[in-house]
Every structure is written in C-alpha cells, then in structure tokens.
Write a structure and sequence with these properties.
Blueprint lengths: L1 H25 L4 H55 L2 H10 L6 E3 L2 E16 L26 E5 L4 E11 L2 E10 L18 E11 L4 E9 L32 E11 L3 E8 L5 E2 L11 E2 L1 E3 L9 E3 L5 E8 L2 E2 L2 E2 L1 E15 L2 E19 L3 E11 L12 E3 L5 E3 L1 E14 L2 E12 L2 E7 L2 E7 L22 E18 L2 E16 L8 E14 L2
Parallel strand pairs: 10-20
Antiparallel strand pairs: 1-2, 2-3, 2-4, 2-28, 4-5, 5-6, 6-7, 7-8, 8-9, 9-14, 11-17, 12-13, 14-17, 15-16, 17-18, 18-19, 19-22, 20-21, 22-23, 23-26, 24-25, 26-27, 27-28
Helix pairs in contact: 1-2
C-alpha cells in the first residue's frame, strides 16, 4: 500500500514547489499577471486537495483490510483451539452426519455403486430341490416321492452387486454403462433360454447412448427384454418387476434377460416407440412317443465352445423381434402408463435334409394406474400368441412336432395383475395373481400296429401313474395351466446415510394343472414361504 502512495506524494511536492515558484514570480509582475497567477494558484490548490482526499481514502482502505485480516486470524485460532478440545468420539459422530456423495468421479465419468446383501429363507411344502428361484413347471404331481417331503433352505445367492457409469460428451449426448451380477449361476444348468445365466451369472451388462435433441436412445448388451413392462416411458432400470422374494418372480410375468440391441424414439417423453432385436432360443417338447424312423430331424445341438456340453441349444438364424409403443398421459393428479407390443419369433429345423422355418408371434399390453398417488398402485399385463412360452416366468414349452417332424408352435396366454400398497414411506404390502395357460397341439398317426399319439397335451397320452406314489403306469402330465396367488410385505426400519436395511416375507400358493389324458388330469400344488433380510449399502 505504501508503494501505491509514492506517486501521489511526489505529485503533491511538485505542486507545492510550483506554488512557491509562481508566488515569487507574481511579485515582479503587473496587476494582470498577478490576477492570472492567482487563478492558476487557485486551480493548483484544488488539485492538491483532490489528491489529498485520494491519499486519505487509500489509507483508510488499508487500515480496514488489516483489521479484517486480524479478525479472521483470531477466529481461526479460536476454531482451532475448540476443534482440538472436541473428544475423538464426538468428532467421529460429527463426520458421520456430514453429507456423503453417492457417486465416484473418475476422468469425467461418474460411477454409482449398487446392489445388496441378502440372507434368505425358503420353505416349500413339496420338495423341488430348488434354490431361491422356483421351477414352476416342475411342481410335483402326487406320484413324486420327493414331493411328499418338505424343503427348507437358507441362501445368500440372490445377493447382487452393480455399477452404473455415466459420462456426457456434451450437453445433449449421454453415455452409460450398467453391470449387475448375482450368485445364482449353476454351470451345468446354465443356458440361453430365459436369462442367459452363465457363470459368473450376468443379470445385466449393457451400454446406452441418449441423444436428447433427437429424442433417440440406443441400448446394446444384456438387459430386460423389451416385452418386460416399464413404469415410465421405455428406459432401462425402470422396469416393473414384481416385488417378490422368489427369484423366479410369479407366473404370468412376461420377461427375459438376454443380449439385444434396442433403438428408442421419444416424443416429448410422453409417447415412446421402440424396436429390439433379441437373442433367440426355443424350448421344445418332441412328444411322448418317438417320431417315425423315416423322419430325419435336427432341431438342436449340444453346446460347443463357450457353452456347457451337457446342455443343448436350439437352431437359430433370425433374432426375436419386439416392437413396443408407450403412452404416459397425465390425468388429473396422476400419470398413467399404457403400453402395447408385438413379438415375432422364428423356429428353425433341419427336416429330411431340408431347412425349414416356422414363425411364431405374440401381442401384449400393460397398464399401471396410481389408484391413490404415492399410496396404492395397480398394474395389469398380458401376452398372448403362439410359441411364446420362454417369455413367461413359468417357462412353458414353445413348440412341439407333428408326426411328420414339422414344428408346431403352441398357443399360450400369460396374464398378471397386482396391487402394491405404500402404507408408509418404509412399509409396502403387495398382492399379485398370475397365470400361464397353454393349448393342446395334439396329433395322431395310424400305423400297422395301431394309433400313435404325438404333440403336446394329447388326450391319448397316459396319465394313469400320476395320482399316487404307488400308482402303476405312465405319467406324461403335459402342463396345461400354472397359476399362483402371492402376497407379502417389505419393511425398511433404517434408511439413512449408511444405506438401507429392509426385511420382508412372502407367501405363495401355486397350482400346476395337466391336460386331460388316459386316467385323468393330475394337479400339483405348492405352498411356499420366503423371508429375506437385505442390506443396501449404497
């Protein structure tokens, strides 16, 4: 500050010297000169006064700045002394209450961790030798010896880990990568039918690109199929998944998790259109009797490189194609969700040295209504068509064969309805009912030795051995209908900066009903109870 004052001091001195010189000269001048000199002197004095006022102002600013700096230093010293006096336990408590970021930042990318630790309990009235995910199409009939004993298990295999990575090259373009894994993989049963669940078990592994200005969205990788209902628009990670503990969810829930490439267009984020090309795979039932020896048929093959050789893979040459339209209208104080979709499938075989292709298709719809916004939600969804079995949680059969070896897709209906009550911010109760129902595709071939039955659900198949553990005879028991009612709750006693802890229970009653055959139509039932304790740390 003193250096800044030097020019002003020098100017003031020069002015004073100038005034003295002018005063000396005025004494030897005439009156006119005296008058002019006096005027100049007055102007010079005015300039000196102005410079003095600037000097005083600078001095005052310097003093104020120094006073503020001294005060800040004093406050810092006091704060440091007080901080040193806080006990270590109190300091830890204070730090724990400070806001925490839920993201990791790395080279311009944000990383959000997710997942949960699950400790779960399973009770089944009839033993199925299943872990947390129930095989509904294998609910035992009364002839099963294993089905006459209970099943109890504890498991942690539904625990999950996930990571979401996001980056924005510009304000209109968004990149994303999402991965999610659990521990339900079983190497010898891993397949490509429902969830492509090899070991390690991949639930989701996909990338996304969003172009806001164009309203376009691209997804590539393994994710929920486009047939799975969304809660809003058509965007990943907002699918409407039944809140069950059973890892197989509930019959009637249309879904798969499989590799795909999906393109979405939104119109003001109220109307959405999408198309997805998805991994094809087919489930077959060849029939209770072998096809005639004259039929040369190839429809699947054992796994090769990258697959378990114990399992078989269907022949595929065209991806499954799903097209969906969604409308999210705002009515009064609530937003509804309406969607409709179509599914195209191709079934491939090598029959009598010629390649053959048969088409299957399905049409589905879904509805979500906030009956009481933020309190009670109602949902309903369904899918109907032929050759759609693998897209239902009950995993019924896609196709069968006639006596000549031709593929015959099986007609099926899948339906699900449910209510979810958000009783409090921490307590949810749910009630769901769902079913999957197939139609018969039955064929009879007359031979020299009599009639031979083929297809699926043929009334000429024998079910005489299905009805008791000591019954004699065959039990074909093709599944006609699987239906389930289930109810449960989730309660979160803690939601805070350390994550979330929740526990829940689920009860379900399932019936598996067979087609009528010789001896009748057997029925299998299953009462199940689940409990889950989960910690979400992120």
């Amino acid at each position: 500050m003193f250096i800044k004052k030097i020019p002003l001091l020098l100017a003031a001195c020069a002015l004073q010297l100038g005034i003295a010189s002018i005063a000396g000269a005025s004494q030897s001048s005439d009156d006119q000169a005296v008058k002019e000199t006096a005027e100049e002197l007055q102007a010079l004095r005015a300039r000196v006064d102005a410079l003095q006022r600037r000097l005083d102002a600078l001095t005052a600013d310097q003093q104020q700045t120094k006073a503020e700096a001294d005060a800040a230093a004093a406050q810092a010293a006091v704060a440091e002394g007080e901080g040193a006096a806080i006990p270590a336990q109190a300091r830890i408590a204070v730090d724990a209450e400070k806001p925490k970021t839920d993201k990791i930042y790395y080279k311009g990318v944000t990383i959000t961790l997710g997942g949960f630790l699950a400790a779960e309990y399973i009770y089944r009235q009839h033993n199925q030798q299943n872990d947390i995910s129930t095989n509904y199409s294998a609910v035992p009939y009364p002839n099963s010896s294993l089905g006459h004993v209970d099943e109890l298990r504890f498991t942690a295999r539904q625990s999950r880990i996930s990571a979401l990575m996001e980056g924005d090259p510009d304000s209109q373009t968004h990149l994303g990568f999402y991965s999610e894994f659990d521990f339900q993989g079983a190497a010898q049963t891993a397949n490509s039918i429902e969830s492509n669940s090899y070991t390690p078990r991949v639930r989701h592994l996909y990338g996304t690109i969003d172009w806001d200005q164009l309203g376009l969205h691209l997804l590539a990788g393994q994710a929920w199929s486009l047939v799975t209902m969304n809660s809003k628009g058509i965007t990943p990670r907002n699918e409407v998944i039944p809140p069950t503990i059973d890892g197989q969810y509930i019959p009637g829930f249309s879904q798969t998790r499989q590799p795909q490439i999906r393109l979405i267009k939104d119109f003001d984020r109220q109307v959405w259109l999408a198309v997805s090309l998805e991994n094809p795979q087919t489930t077959f039932y060849t029939g209770a009797n072998a096809l005639p020896a004259s039929v040369h048929l190839t429809y699947d093959a054992t796994g090769g490189e990258g697959f378990d050789s114990v399992n078989t893979l269907s022949l595929n040459h065209i991806p499954d194609v799903v097209a969906k339209a969604v409308y999210d209208p705002r009515i009064a104080d609530r937003t509804l969700h309406l969607e409709a979709f179509g599914l195209y499938r191709s079934f491939y075989e090598r029959l009598n040295y010629t390649n053959r292709n048969v088409s299957g298709e399905g049409f589905g719809a879904g509805l979500i209504v906030p009956v009481v916004p933020s309190v009670l939600d109602f949902q309903m969804s369904g899918l109907a068509g032929k050759g759609i079995g693998r897209y239902g949680s009950a995993q019924l059969t896609d196709v069968t064969f006639d006596p000549t070896g031709n593929i015959r897709p099986i007609n099926e209906i899948q339906a699900l309805a449910g209510l979810v009550l958000h009783a409090t911010p921490k307590f949810d109760v749910y009630l769901f009912f769902g079913e999957e129902k197939e139609s018969a595709q039955a064929y009879t071939l007359a031979t020299g030795s009599g009639l031979v039955q083929y297809g699926y659900g043929n009334p000429g198949y024998s079910n005489t051995g299905c009805f008791s553990e000591t019954a004699v005879g065959a039990c074909v028991g093709n599944t006609r209908l699987i239906e389930q009612g289930t109810s449960g709750f989730w309660y979160s006693p803690y939601i805070g900066s350390f994550g979330r802890f929740q526990y829940g229970m689920q009860y379900s009653y399932t019936e598996r009903k067979a087609f009528d055959g010789i001896g009748g139509a057997p029925i299998g039932n299953q009462n199940m109870v689940f409990a889950s304790f989960r910690y979400y740390p992120f």
